[in-house]
Amino acid sequence: MPIPSLRPKPRKNNWRYKPLGGVRPAYSPQAWRSKKYRPRRKQGLALRLIKVIVPAGILAGLFSIVFVVSLFAWYGRDLPDPDKLLERSIAQSTTIYDRTGENILYEVHGEERRTMVELEEIPEYLVWATIVAEDRQFYEHSGFNLRRIIITAVKDIFTGQRAGASTITQQFVKNAILTPEKRYSRKIKELILSYQIENKFTKDQILKMYFNEIPYGSTAYGIEAASQIYLGKSVSELSLAEAATIAGLPQAPTYYYNHQDALQGRRDYILDSLAEFGYITQEDAELAKEEPLKLEQRKEALVAPHFVMYVKELLSQRYGERLVESGGLNIQTTLDIEKQEAAEAAVEERALNNETDYGAMNAALVALDPKTGDILAMVGSRDFYNEDIDGQVNVTTSPRQPGSSFKPIVYAASFIKGYTPKTILWDVVTTFKTEVGEDYTPHNYDNKEHGPITMRKALAGSLNIPAVKTIYLTGISKVLDLADALGYTTLYDRSRFGLSLVLGGGEVKLLEHVAAYGALSQEGIIQTPRAVLKVTDSNGEILEEADEEPTGERAMDPEICRLVSNILSDNEARAFTFGSSNYLNLGERPVAAKTGTTNDYKDAWAVGYAPSLVAGVWVGNNDNKEMKRGAAGGVVAAPIWHHFMQAALRGSPIEQFAVPAEIKAEKPVLRGETGSEVTAKIDKASNKLASSSTPPELVEERAFKEMHSILHYVDKNDPQGPVPKDPTQDSYYEPWEQAILEFLAREKEKREAGDEKAFAYDALPTEEDDVHTLENIPIVSIISPLPGKIFTTNILTARISADVPRGEISKVEYWIDSELFAAEEKSPYNLEKTILSTSDGKHTLIAKVYDDVLNMGEARVDFNIDLIDIAPAINWLYPKTDIILGANNFPLNLSISIPNPDQQRIGVVRLKFFYQAETSSQSRLLGLVTDPEDFDKIELAWPSAPGPGIYNVYVEAEDYKGEVYRSEVRRVEVE
Question: CB-based contacts of 432: which residues, under 8 Å, 6+ apart?
């Protein structure tokens, strides 16, 4: 228990109240005056000597007193004023805490590690242990113990043995105010100051100064630092045995630390002394002796070392190195211990695989609260203590090339300028002319081309070619303006950057990069990364304190950020490049993320955010050595990011990103439409522009899209403005157009070679129909019939011959007058067909021959038809006459035939089936058959049985002239 005062208790056996004792005189003045001691007269010489020596002794004594006083005055003239002792600056350790203010991350100190404590914080038994060990007359002397000094001096002179005579006050003066040099002048100053201090301060004040400033070995100055270094706990938590151990150190710290058997003996001696003088019981002392001695110089706690050093450097710039190292500051930082542990675990888990598989020796991670800018976790390297990888270099604050992870900043700038996520860009290999040096031809990571693609898909899939076009359309200066607003400090020299900036051509700091992504999550509010929440000095005065809810600065319009977040959080949009199962996806929890990889595989990145947490990962080598091919951000950095985000967000509410508003744009190219539509008349045979020679039936009006780059439709400086009057004024118009044409030509070759994945596009033909020409028209001759031929039968026959320049007849059509009579598509293309409706008299036979593209040639011949009409014969096949049927025989199939001799002209076009009851004069129509194809058997179903009775069934045939012929009657009885 702490004690309010260390004044001793009035006890009879208390050693403080035992008389110090003294030397009794060997004679008395009364004895001197007795006759016994009077000198004899015969001793005149002795008397004379005494008369000489005594005055001389008195003079010598007076001279000695004057000398000593002068000596003390001389040495005391330059000593510090004891009145100002409490005002002097004492080196104290600066303590850095996490955001809770409870977990110590590190103690910053110079050569002296010291943490001040109040006397009340020190256990009572530790105070008494120190007094019995170092200065048992502490409460009785006035700064020094003259008797002990004399005894020590005598022993030193006559035996050569050195013994300690310094009081607690003297030890404090020697170690805290004067130097520890072995000189009499220093000893005199020590005595003077000790006396002065005893007269100026209380014993409790002296003890407090002693406990806070005395050295305990190593860098431990003061009792609190000793407790932390040797026992790993605060002085207020020390047990009795530990207190006795610490109390025994000041006599010879280094010796006792290196000879802990001797230290144990001193501890036990101190415990026995405490029991002897009644400050503990002997039983307590014996129990404490049984406690093992566990004194070891612990490594200084260094949690989140890169973060701690970042904070130290930050505050040293603000307050100076001296105050930070020895000013006793208490610093409450922004670090979240749990998230820091999650970050370290994520880096460590993947580090070995990255080293083995890809030659990536290092990794770094930093995480922020995007709403405040608080640095929640910082891992500056894989291993702070690994010199082989420059482990103490904090990569989170070191400039590195970000690769494609810089693309969201560029696209955000393009949206600010007026472009939209639906804007169409051509992802085709394009060469960008440069004023100095070689031309620039970017390629995608997979070396593929994707044709026309939206900005949304290009950003999600991290395509390089559209990104370079985007930064050209946006303007490098506009991108850098936005970067400045987002807090990037490494892109100040604008003359260094070209179009490759969008692919990571400018170095950025991971910490600033993550903060910029944080602004996207906060709808455009950028919070400067902060590491310190509160700083107090050694007196508890607040030097600085961060706002709980910082306002930040607006860098972008909220709608712009919503667009970018919507794209980066769309897992399906990036699936065509990364696959649907990738490390940028956290399942049901919406996150927006982007990877980056430099072309030479020196840097790999993954940066992403949820609404309340943003984190970034870098993987690579500090010496800029290239990693192995394939060490892309999605492969080596994204798994670390994924692991950390999962752990850091576990158990937190799932938050949604705000949905962007629908963007309305007048220009099709800004609405996601590819090309502009035009119509043209096309020859279906040649797929070229129709000409006057193209057969009408082969002319087709088709819609086509003219494929142009975006520069054909927009002025890059005013994308929402009027269409350029002369787009060729843009220096990149021709190269972009040419790149599209070359791409379409390559894709056409792929399609023709059977590649079904090739880009499907039908270009507007530029050539006219060249297959329908006079030279290609077939030459036709009719071999038979000869002109004037008279056909007296119902069969018309014809034979032709044809010369077809294209080599192949596709079909032959035979026309009689102006009506198509027959068509033949198989060789020998001759005609033999029954004449049905053609009237007698003169007619013209036309033979039209078509080639494979419907070039047509024809020949004509006149002929005559003179046929004798013969009435058709209608023969019943079923039923037979006088047949008796039951209701179960229905439906009943009626069938007839009409014989067709070659000399007989058959022109039946319609057949009607009737039945009539014998008791009735009215006939009923059963059904109708038109244009029968098979005259050998013509059928009609009688669907249901009539009532019982006798019925007559007959058929009427009508020819093409309208004449009607009636069959014989079949008599049927229905029971």
Answer: 439, 440, 441, 442, 468, 472, 499, 732, 735
Cα angle vertex 161, ends 157, 164, to 5°? 100
Query: Given this model, what pLDDT does residue 678 score?
Result: 82
| Same-domain pairing of 378 and 248 | no
CA-to-CA dists, residue 546 to 243, 285, 328, 543, 608, angstroms: 39, 50, 20, 11, 26
Torsion of CA 657, 658, 664, 669, to 10 degrees: -10
Q: What total number of domains does the chain contain?
A: 5
**Residue 493 or residue 21, greater confidence:** 493
Regarding whether 902 and 857 lie in a shared domain, the answer is no
* pLDDT beyond 60 at 12: no
Say whether both 379 and 496 belong to one domain: yes
From the CB of residue 750, how many other CB atoms can be counted at a distance below 10 Å?
Answer: 13
Report pLDDT for 157.
53
The Cα–Cα gap between 211 and 119 comes to 8
Instruction: Indicate yes or no: pTM above 0.85.
Output: no
Q: Is the dihedral of CA 94, 95, 99, 102 positive or negative?
A: negative
145 and 194 belong to one structural domain: yes
Domain limits at 890? 875-974
Task: Kindly tell me the number of DSSP H helices and DSSP E strands found in the chain.
Answer: 24, 36
pLDDT grade for 298, boundaries at 50, 70 and 90: low
Mean pLDDT of the chain: 84
Of the chain, the percentage scoring pLDDT greater than 70 comes to 85
**Whether 247 contacts 270, CB under 8 Å:** yes
Is residue 493 situated within a structural domain? Answer: yes
